[in-house]
Amino acid sequence: MHVPKGFVKEVKEDKQVFGESSIPTDAKEVFAGDASFYQMIESDSGGEAEDFFALAAAPKPVASKVLSVPVAGSGASGKKLGILKLSLIIVLVIVGVMLLVPVSLYCFSALTAPEVPSQSEKVGGDRGVSGQSEGVKTVPAAGSQVTVTSGAGAMEEPASWKMAQVFYQQKDYAKASSAYGKLLGNLGTDSSHAIIRDFLYLRLALCSQRLGDGPVAEAYFNKVLRSQAPSVVALANYHMAYSQFAAQNYSEARTKAYQTLAIVETIERPYCETMINDCYYLIAQSLTAQAMMYESERCEVPVEWPTVKYSEPFEQLDEAGLLKLLQAGSSPLKSAVLGPQVQKLSTPDKLQRWFVKAYRAPIEEVYVNFAASGGPEVHWACEYGPVHSRAITLYLPAVTGQRFAEIATGAAGLLASFESKKTLVYNPDTYSSVMERKALLGNEAMAAWQRFIFSYPKDKRLADAHFGLGVLGTAAGQYVSAVGEYRQVANNFSQSALAPYALFNSGKLQLGLKDYESAKADLKELTVQYADSQVSDQGNIMLAQTAMALGDYENAQFVFRKIYNLELPAEQKLAAAMGAAKCYYAMGDNESAAVWFQKFLDYAKASKIAHPAELQNAYLMLAQSYANMGKYGEACSGYKSALANSASPGEQFEITMELGRAFMKQQSFVEALQTIETINIIDLTAEQTCRLWTAKARVLRAMNLPDQGLTILEGKAGATSSLQIKSEMMLEMAQCYNATGNYARARGLLCEAIVNMPQSSETAGLQCDLAEVCLKMNENQQAINVCNELLKGNINSKIKARVEAVLGEAYTKLKQFDRAAMVYGGAGIIERPTSNAQRPMSN
Predict the structure, then answer these.
(1) Are 727 and 766 in contact (CB under 8 A)?
(2) Which terminus of the chain faces fewer neighbouring Cβ atoms within 10 Å, N or C?
(3) Closest-CA residue to 355 (of 371, 370, 339)
(4) What is the pTM of this model?
(5) Each residue of 279-331: pLDDT tens digit?
(6) Please, what's the b/e burial string for 218-232 (b: 16 or more CB within 10 A of its CB; e: otherwise)?
(7) How far, in Å, CA of 589 to CA of 557, rounded?
(8) How many CB atoms lie within 10 A of CB 830?
C-alpha cells in the first residue's frame, strides 16, 4: 500500500502550524545500540514514508526496529507511554474476561435452581389463601439438602413429569424429589408458570415428608400456602391435614380439613368430591380422637384406631391434565379481594342457599355479611378477642346456612354447635372445666359421624363411623345406644377389622347392664367367628364371667382354668386366676378357692402389674375362705394383708371389723378388742359408729363383761335410722341382758328386734334366740309356739338343730315326753292349740 506523495508535504506544513520540534533528530541521541543498528535506522529513515507501512510484510521483522520507527510530529517518550497504556488495557481486558466467566456461571445457576424457603422465614410472616395464622414452626437445619445441584452438569440429566410421577408412585421419594427439583429448575422464573411451580413445591414437600425430613417439608408446605392459586392451597391444606393427624395434632388436622373444604370447590369434579368425602371423614376421626383423650372408661379398640387412610387425588394425571385442572381453579376469588361477598341464590326447592366468597377476610365480617344477606345469625359463645378477627378464605358456590356456619367456623379453628335453631360458636381451646370440654368434643364428634353416615351411605368407611359412635356413646354413658352401634358393625360389616372389637365391647357393656344372655350371645359369636382376633382370649374370659354371673360356676371355672394355662399376657392370666377362685368360692369349695386366690397373688407379685384394689380383694376373699374352713390364723394374716392394700377409710373399717371377728373366732378376745379400738371413731358415719359399739359390746360379753357391753349400747339404738343396724344393737343388748339373767328385758328387746328386722335369714336366728330366752323364763309353751313357726319356714340346718333342741326341752319341761321323743326323732312340727296367755308378748 502506498501513501500519496503529498502526505509528507502536508506533514511538513503541519510543522509550520505546531512549530518546530525540540526532539533530537540524531538517532544516537534517541536510541542505544551498536553501529549496525544505527546504520539500519539511517537507511530506513532515508526512504519514502510508504516503507513504514510496508513493515508488516517484511519477512523477518525485528521488534526493536518496529517500536523505534519515528512518527512525524511525536517524540520517543510519547511513543513509549502509549505502548505502556495499550499493554495495560490489554491485561485488564484479559483479567475482566477471566472474572466474567465464573460470575456468569454463578448467576445462571442461581436463576435456574429451585427456590428454598429461607431459614429466617417465621410462623406468622405471611398468610396463605387459606387464611391460616400459623405457618412454618421449624425451618430446615443448616446443610439440609433440599434442592438438586444446578448448573450445566445438572441440566444435562433428563427430567420429565412422567418420570417424576413413576418415581412418586413407586414410593422412591428420593428420586422423585430430584426429578421434581429439575422440573422446577427448568421452569425458570416466568410468572406464567407460577401455578405449576407451586404444585411442584407441594410435591417436594410430600417427598421430604415421606423421607422423614419434617422441617424441610413444613417449610415447603408453608411456601405453597402463600400461593395465589386457591386450588393449590386447597391441595396443600388437604395433605397437611393428613400429616397433622398422623402426628396426633388432632385439633390442627381438623382445622386444615375445614380449610380444605372452604376452597375445595375451586377444583373441578370429580376430584373435589373425593377430597370433600375424605375431609369430613378426617374431621370426625379427629374429634373422636380428641374426645377419647379425656375418657377414663376403657373400650377395646385396634392399636391403630382411630386412623385415616391417605389418598392422592391427582396421582394419575399427566402434565396437560394437571395444568388444566389447576389453572381452572386459579381465579375464582379475584373478585373477593376487597371484601367478602355473599349472594342469596334462587332455588327451586325450599332449602335456602347462598354463594359465599371471601379472601383472607376476618371471620366476624363474613358472619355479618352473611346475616345481612338473609342468612341465619351466628352467636358467639366465647369472649371477644383475637378469635373474632381470624382470617378465613371461602369459596362456597351453593351452600346452606348450617353448612356455611360449620365450614367457616371450622376453617378458623373454632366449633359451631347448632342448638334449637341457633348457631353458637365456641373456642375449643378455652373452657372452664375438663368435663365441659369433654362433653363439647364428644357431642361434636357424634354429630360429625352422623352427618357422615347420612351424607355418604355407601362409603366403605361406614364401619368406622358406627364404631366411633359406639365408643363415643360409651364415653357419654349412653350404653344402650352404644350397644346398637356395635351391633351395626358386627351385623353389617362382618368382614371389617373392627367387627371383633365391636362384639367384645357390646358383650362387655351388656355384662355391665346385667343382660347376661345377650352378652353371652355376643361373646360366643366373637370366640367362634373371630377366634384368631386380638380380643378372642379376652372374649373367652368375659364369656366365663358371664357364665359365672348366670350361676354356671362349673363351666365358668373350667374355662378360667383353661385360659390360665395358656401363654397369654399377664393381665389375662390374672383375670383367669381371679375368676376361677371366685367360682370355687361361690361353689363353697373354700380349699380350691384359697389355692386359686394364692395363685393370683403369687402371679401378681411376680408380674407387678396388679392394681392395689385387686390385691385387696384377693387377700380379703382368701381370708374369708380360710375363715370358712376354720383356719382363723391364716384368715387373720389375710385380713392384715388386705388392710395393708386398702385405700379408703370405709374399706379399712370393713376389713378391721372382719379381722376383729376372726380374732374372736380364735378366742383371742384381747386381740379382737385391741383391733376394734384401732378404728378412729371420728372418721366414721353414724351407721359405722353403731356397728363399732355393737362389736365392742359383743367382745366384752364374750369376755364375761356383759355389764360393760350394756353400758356402751344402752340408749344408743336411736343414733341410727337403719332398721337393720338398730335390730342388731337390740339383739346384742338382749344377749347381754340374757347373760346377766335379766330374761324379761332380753325377751322384750328380742321381740322389738324381730319387728324392726327386715325379713332375712337373720330373722330366724332372732326368733331362735327368743325361743331360748322364753325357755329360760319357763315360758315353755311360748317357746314351743315360736319353734313351730320357725319349722314352717325354710331354715338352714344349724338353726333347725337349735330349734329342735329348744322344742324338745320345752316338751320335756311340760312332761310331754311322747312329743319330746317325736321331736328328737325328727318328727318336725307338732301342732297344739295355744291360749292367748301363751302367745309371745313384748316387754
Answers:
(1) yes
(2) N
(3) 370
(4) 0.67
(5) 999 999 999 999 888 876 667 788 677 777 766 777 667 777 777 777 766 67
(6) bbbbbbbbbbebbbb
(7) 12
(8) 17
